[in-house]
Specification:
This protein is an alpha/beta fold. Helix content is 26%, strand content 26%. The chain has 14 helices and 28 strands. The strands form 7 sheets. Strands 16, 17, 18, 19, 20, 22, 24, 27 and 28 form a 9-stranded mixed beta sheet that branches. The chain has a 5-stranded mixed beta sheet with strand order 2-1-12-6-7, with no helix packed on it. Strands 4-15-14-10-11 form a 5-stranded mixed beta sheet, with no helix packed on it. The chain is globular, with a radius of gyration of 26 Å.
């Protein structure tokens, strides 16, 4: 089928890493751009579905800006490179990471499938490339945003570099990289990529009509490494999306007191983060830990470790939707560990909450953020008064509790409980049952019943409880 924008590229070239935030997610900064090819048959357009293959779990989006080559370019210098650009358009570099294990760096199976390069809905011409801004939305929520100041390699350099050894022809597309924030999507999800001035590219994910992949050839396979790559972070290997939406909803609805009981039954006594208070007691929190460790201030190394895009700021730019930023401040209350600007950025990236056992800066402003935040004390001083941001996605100690990357943190007005990832589904289910029983008990106590034999329930009361439940189900 003809592309509605008249595009018929002979080559689709994509850049591996080209945004500073994405490089921080991947844990490496390239010295020069590197590329891979996508087949022209992967080209698609706005409002076309993107199919997740049968047997696959790890379909991820990457919002990008695509350069449309307008005239033949061969060995052009950077200062003349943009003369060969016909325009700019939004693109989405979809990839299914279940096949990365077999691609050996080519991305052919992962990113070359039909429909995996939608572009459009319009081509922006005559624009200043330095003023372009890219945004990606997942189900209406902003998950990626970047300006051109974040590029590692400018558009002019990409064209000059590629044209040294190959001819770029009219209609060829260059996908210029994605910022931090891409993640796994499911059938039913809607991904929109917006290039200011060129509209929004809209594509919905659908499931494959086949029940299982074909028996021949490479089969999809999920590894911890492919989970980490699909979720966007080299330091985050827990398969977060394998916890169901029902489990996460249950964790948000049950009390931390109930979760504490369930964890103690499983032998986990050290799970309640001590000494922290909520900025918004009305908000519930449930999400996966993204950890950040602060070390004690040493003035001679602060400039090296604490200046510029330090570990604190990099971690904010690496946060994935549904993650809780957990800051180890060693219980030191002598400075703030986070302020409202970075908290707002974390919220825009989809953070589920913030927990710090140190001070919170700009704490009055947090009352206006729809972001659950837990902290030890308010403090006006910046973190450099007492802390050096050191490293992220490592085990940390927060409020006397060990927190591992990927642990599930649940917060309510009482405080924060750390639930080991492997236990989360079972703990949630048992907590829901416990709270159901306790509602029954509370009603009987309110009616005047003695707690003797009721709390905990003896066989007679348990039989009454089953009848109560059945009556509720039949109502």
């Amino acid at each position: 089928m003809d592309h509605p924008l008249g595009l018929a590229p002979r080559k689709i070239i994509a850049v591996h890493l080209n945004y500073r935030s994405r490089a921080a997610e991947r844990g490496r900064v390239p010295a020069a751009p590197s590329y891979f090819l996508k087949p022209p048959t992967s080209l698609s357009w706005s409002e076309r579905p993107v199919v997740r293959p049968a047997g696959c779990e790890l379909l991820a989006f990457e919002g990008e800006i695509a350069l449309v080559i307008g005239s033949r370019a061969r060995q052009v210098p950077p200062e003349r490179a943009l003369e060969h650009v016909a325009g700019y358009t939004a693109a989405n570099d979809f990839g299914v990471y279940d096949f990365k294990h077999a691609d050996l760096g080519s991305n052919l199976r992962a990113k070359g499938q039909d429909g995996y390069t939608p572009v459009g809905p319009a081509i922006l011409t005559g624009a200043d490339p330095g003023s372009l801004r890219l945004r990606t939305y997942l189900n209406g929520r902003l998950v990626q945003e970047a300006g051109m100041g974040e590029l590692l390699f400018g558009f002019d350099l990409l064209i000059a570099d590629l044209s040294r050894y190959m001819t770029l022809e009219p209609g060829d597309l260059i996908l210029t990289g994605t910022p931090a924030g891409s993640t796994v999507v499911e059938p039913g999800d809607l991904v929109e990529v917006e290039l200011e001035g060129a509209g929004r590219l809209r594509n919905q994910v659908v499931g494959d009509s086949r029940d299982a992949p074909a028996a021949w050839g490479v089969q999809p396979r999920v590894t911890l490494e492919s989970w980490a790559a699909a979720l966007g972070s080299a330091g985050s290997a827990a398969p977060y999306h394998s916890l169901s939406a029902e489990t996460m909803h249950t964790l948000r609805s049950v009390s931390t007191a109930t979760l504490s009981s369930q964890l103690r039954r499983r032998g986990i006594d050290h799970h309640f983060i001590e000494g922290v208070r909520p900025t918004r007691p009305d908000l519930r929190m449930a999400g996966f830990a993204r950890t950040l460790r602060y070390l004690p201030l040493r003035e001679d190394i602060f400039t090296e470790m604490g200046g510029g895009m330090n570990a604190q700021k990099r971690t904010i730019e690496e946060i994935l939707p549904g993650e809780v930023l957990v800051i180890e401040a060693r219980g030191d209350h002598g400075a703030g560990t986070l302020g409202d600007i970075l908290a707002q950025r974390a919220l825009r990236r989809g953070a589920a909450g913030v927990v710090t056992d140190g001070g919170l800066r700009d704490s009055p402003s947090f009352a206006g953020l729809d972001l659950p935040a837990y902290y030890a004390v308010p403090h006006a001083a910046v973190l450099g008064r007492r802390h050096v941001p050191a490293v992220s996605q490592v085990p940390v100690a927060c409020g006397g509790v060990l927190v591992m990357p990927g642990d599930v943190l649940v917060g309510d007005a009482e405080g924060v409980v750390v639930v080991p990832y492997a236990m989360a589904a079972d703990v949630a289910a048992d907590a829901a049952r416990q709270e159901d029983e306790e509602r029954f008990i509370l009603q009987r106590v309110a009616e005047g019943a003695s707690i003797d034999g009721l709390y905990p329930m003896n066989p007679a009361w348990r039989q009454a409880y089953r009848a109560w439940r059945k009556s509720g189900e039949d109502a």
